Amino acid sequence: MQTSRGMARPRMTARRVGSVALLVQDEEPPLNEEWEDWLRLLKSFEKGPDGARVLVLTRGGGPTPHQRSRISQVVGKPNLLVAVVTSSVKVRFIVSSVALVIPRIRSFPWEGLREAYAHLGLSTQEQEQVGRNLAEMRRIIGVQ
Questions:
Q1: Residues in Cβ contact with 91 at an 8 Å cutoff, skipping those fewer than 6 apart
Q2: How far apart are CA 25 and CA 129, in angstroms?
């Protein structure tokens, strides 16, 4: 799933790779339409979002307060396991506020992708699949 919906360049793109939900975001907050697509992806897991593993790479964009409130409105209080990879102090602050709703969320520096994989418990094969998908997703939205 990609959340571009006809925009010249999406601010974020998301997809599911096996049991992992991936989100790559540029430096801007997502459009509400993009965020709603992301929430639908989270709800697509067989048991709902409970127990899902989520990997987010962002260059500084993060959900708005309204979008953060939609997490609990749409998916309840899930038992998500989340790794957010960013160099943005602002996003790290957002992660700490989201931890009130999603306690198993943790942030990692941009160079900490391997540590994020470990936090999510990804196997070597999953890491390879996720890595290939992340590279493609980064090209889609222009994140280096």
A1: 58, 60, 61, 62, 84, 107
A2: 19
Q: In angstroms, rounded to a whole number, what is the distance separating the alpha carbons of residues 135 and 119?
A: 20
What is the distance of C-alpha 93 from the center of its chain?
A: 15
> What span, in angstroms and rounded, lies between the C-alpha atoms of 43 and 63?
17
pLDDT for position 1: 44
Per-residue pLDDT tens digits for 2-41: 444 454 688 999 999 998 999 999 999 999 999 999 999 9
Distance separating alpha carbons of residues 106 and 46, to the nearest angstrom: 24
For the sheet containing 105-108, what is the strand order? 12-17, 20-25, 53-58, 81-85, 105-108
Say whether pLDDT at 119 is over 80.
yes
Distance CA 32, CA 103 (A): 24
Question: Which tens digit of pLDDT belongs to each residue from 90-105?
Answer: 999 888 888 887 888 9
Give the span between the Cα atoms of 137 and 90, in whole angstroms. Answer: 22
CA 19 to chain centre: 13
